[in-house]
């Protein structure tokens, strides 16, 4: 005979007790015979195990198997327990075995699968669901958006939309959470028409727009550039809270309407830090650097301490616009307020110094960080690579726990740009072996590495991979491939790749033009320049490097000088050190050494090693000892360049002419200035 037990009280206790007390109640009900024979107390114990630690999923399973009778509640509780323990297959199997399923059953298994990341199965189940419920719809839609699969979210909406009766209270189209997710996705992808349709549906079905949904609508309209509709939504809200106002203020500012934003902002008596952040942060996409900094100073003077968001916004816009002094002042404020310890502000600080080419300051900011995330570490890979410190870059790369595609690309680009082609190629092969997604940046970078060592066989294998990935028509990939073929002397293949591109951009034109130049086809390069202009593509600095190089390699001296002076007068392109080096080489090759030296000495900036190396080579070729000694004397009096190639060539040339004393003096000067000669090495493409 069962002992007298207060079953309702036990059920009540099971709803709120922990695992230890729950086990004791389970034993009591087991001894009294109420479990598993009676459904209500057994379901209460089952729910207790399902609600607890994932370790109790086995207890839930054993109890479920002992139950003589079960209902939807029993199955739903076990499914919850199995999802908690990570047994997706078991949960789905139990769901399929259910004799009857209610809405909660469908919601439980769909939300469980989306939480576990199995979106495809969750979507298939949602399609099977007899009556689409808002909870299940929102779970799948929200996960699609979070995973970046926004287009699939819209496709799902279009598919389930006709199946939902908008007049039903339980319809997803009447649920504010679903609608907020939909409108948010429209904002992220600039789906203006779809967003307007969703808003129209809200108006037609008379859905009350609360502050969360209103904020989402305002954000969507602002991002899509419809500020009038955003203002109407704002003015139509029953209760305007800080979030709605912040969304509109940020929208006005980011669209360049700072005056409208300030009119709204100035009506608030004591604006919060969130409202200040919206006002200042909106200046970043509009590139209002000065306005952002003025507002930041105004906020400080009002007595409001900056947070990481404010500092990050200012540092980002200062970095983009090259505003060094305001950025450094913001760094000081961030140090005083402690905002610099936040990863968001710290990452923006490193980006700021990187944009300003202050690599040492960027490295210092990184060294002071207590914690790192993937974004910061990716940035530092690029920073160290730009400093030429590829060993440090590789060390940071190896520190990244979950490497993204950006992490791999940054390291491959770093190796390629620093002349470590083999390392770049090896890392790319490792990336490919791991089955990681290869994008145009990775493909173009490794093609560039291949071209630097003239490894045409490896480069063609990479291009085959690019074709398989559908990237053969991408301008960046095509440009790198043209560069590879031209550097390897296969100009015909380079031309074929160029001719297949329907609408080549400036980068592609420059690659082909430089390809002609490096292979000695000066007249063809100039003809290509004329064709480029006729197609409406404006020549850039890089274009004129190719033009001058083409004239240099083809002996077109007067033509080259004419283009050098025209580039500033007719095309408003200021000559850089590379342009001056090309003209210097042009004059040297033509035997006009004195004119070349005079050209260098009249440059608006100090000549680099390339220009002086060209002069020394010309002196050696023409036997002009007097000029060689003049250059030698100038080199010894002033530290022209820290590059070893210039000094080594000068020393070798002096030695070849029998002036061993001067040659030894140059070598001694290298030691005094701590200029070391790079060790020579060879590379043979055996593939």
From TrEMBL:
Keywords: Repeat, Transit peptide
Regions crossing the membrane: none
InterPro entries assigned to the protein according to its UniProt record, in alphabetical order: PPR_At4g14850-like_plant, PPR_rpt, TPR-like_helical_dom_sf
GO cellular component, one term: mitochondrion
Keyword Repeat in record: yes
Residue ranges of PPR repeats: 71-101, 102-136, 241-275, 373-403, 404-438, 505-539, 540-574
Keyword Secreted: no
Family: Belongs to the PPR family. PCMP-E subfamily.
PANTHER family associated with the record: PENTATRICOPEPTIDE REPEAT-CONTAINING PROTEIN
NCBIfam families, per the entry: PPR
Protein name: Pentatricopeptide repeat-containing protein
Source organism (scientific name): Urochloa decumbens
């Amino acid at each position: 005979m069962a002992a007298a037990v207060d079953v309702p009280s036990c059920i009540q206790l099971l709803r709120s007790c922990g695992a230890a007390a729950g086990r004791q109640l389970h034993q009591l009900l087991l001894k009294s015979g109420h479990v598993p024979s009676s459904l209500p107390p057994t379901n209460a114990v089952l729910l207790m195990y399902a609600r607890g630690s994932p370790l109790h999923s086995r207890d839930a399973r054993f109890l479920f198997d002992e139950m003589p009778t079960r209902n939807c509640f029993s199955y739903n509780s076990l499914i919850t327990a199995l999802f908690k323990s990570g047994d997706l297959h078991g949960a789905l199997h139990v769901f399929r075995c259910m004799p009857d399923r209610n809405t909660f059953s469908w919601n439980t298994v769909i939300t469980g699968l989306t939480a576990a990341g199995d979106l495809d199965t969750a979507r298939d189940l949602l399609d099977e669901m007899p009556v689409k419920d808002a909870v299940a719809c929102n779970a799948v839609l929200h996960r699609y958006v979070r995973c970046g699969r926004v287009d699939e979210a819209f496709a799902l909406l279009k598919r389930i939309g006709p199946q939902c009766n908008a007049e039903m209270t339980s319809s997803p189209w009447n649920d504010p959470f679903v609608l907020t997710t939909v409108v948010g996705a429209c904002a992220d992808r600039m789906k203006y028409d779809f967003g307007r349709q969703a808003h129209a549906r809200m108006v037609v079905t008379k859905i009350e727009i609360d502050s969360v949904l209103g904020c989402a609508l305002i954000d969507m309209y602002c991002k899509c550039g419809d500020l009038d509709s955003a203002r109407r939504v704002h003015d139509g809200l029953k209760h305007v809270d800080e979030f709605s106002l912040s969304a509109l203020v940020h929208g006005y500012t980011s669209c360049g309407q700072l005056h409208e934003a300030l009119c709204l902002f100035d009506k608030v008596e004591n604006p919060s830090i969130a409202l200040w952040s919206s006002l200042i942060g909106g200046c970043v996409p509009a590139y209002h650097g000065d306005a952002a900094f003025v507002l930041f100073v105004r906020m400080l003077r009002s007595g409001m301490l900056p947070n990481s968001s404010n500092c990050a916004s200012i540092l980002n816009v200062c970095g983009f616009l090259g505003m060094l002094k305001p950025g450094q002042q913001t760094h000081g404020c961030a140090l005083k307020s402690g905002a610099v310890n936040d990863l968001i502000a710290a990452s923006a600080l490193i980006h700021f110094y990187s944009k300003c080419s202050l690599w040492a300051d960027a490295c210092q900011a990184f060294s002071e960080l207590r914690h790192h995330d993937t974004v910061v570490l990716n940035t530092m890979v690029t920073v160290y690579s730009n400093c030429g410190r590829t060993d440090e870059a590789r060390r940071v790369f190896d520190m990244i726990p979950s490497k993204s595609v950006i992490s791999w690309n940054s390291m491959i680009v770093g190796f390629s740009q620093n002349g470590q082609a083999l390392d770049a190629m090896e890392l790319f092969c490792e990336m490919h072996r791991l089955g990681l997604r290869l994008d145009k940046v990775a493909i173009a970078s490794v093609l560039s590495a291949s071209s630097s060592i003239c490894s045409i066989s490896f480069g063609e294998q990479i291009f085959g991979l690019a074709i398989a990935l559908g990237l053969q028509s991408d301008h960046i990939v095509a440009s790198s491939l043209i560069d590879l073929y031209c550097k390897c002397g296969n100009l015909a293949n380079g031309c074929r790749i160029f001719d297949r591109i329907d609408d080549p951009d400036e980068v592609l034109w420059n690659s082909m033009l430089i390809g002609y130049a490096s292979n000695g086809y000066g007249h063809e390069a100039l003809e290509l320049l004329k064709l480029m202009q006729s197609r409406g593509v404006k020549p850039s600095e890089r274009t004129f490097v190719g033009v001058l190089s083409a004239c240099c390699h083809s002996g077109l001296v007067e033509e080259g000088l004419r283009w050098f002076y025209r580039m500033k007068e007719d095309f408003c392109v200021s000559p850089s050190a590379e342009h001056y080096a090309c003209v210097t080489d042009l004059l040297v090759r033509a035997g006009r050494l004195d004119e070349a030296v005079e050209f260098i000495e009249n440059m608006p900036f100090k000549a680099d090693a390339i220009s002086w190396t060209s002069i020394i080579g010309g002196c050696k070729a023409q036997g002009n000892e007097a000029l060689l000694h003049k250059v030698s004397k100038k080199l010894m009096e002033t530290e022209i360049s820290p590059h070893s190639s210039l000094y080594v060539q000068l020393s070798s040339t002096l030695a070849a002419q029998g002036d061993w004393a001067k040659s030894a003096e140059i070598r001694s000067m290298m030691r005094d200035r701590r200029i070391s000669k790079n060790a020579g090495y060879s590379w043979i493409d055996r593939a």
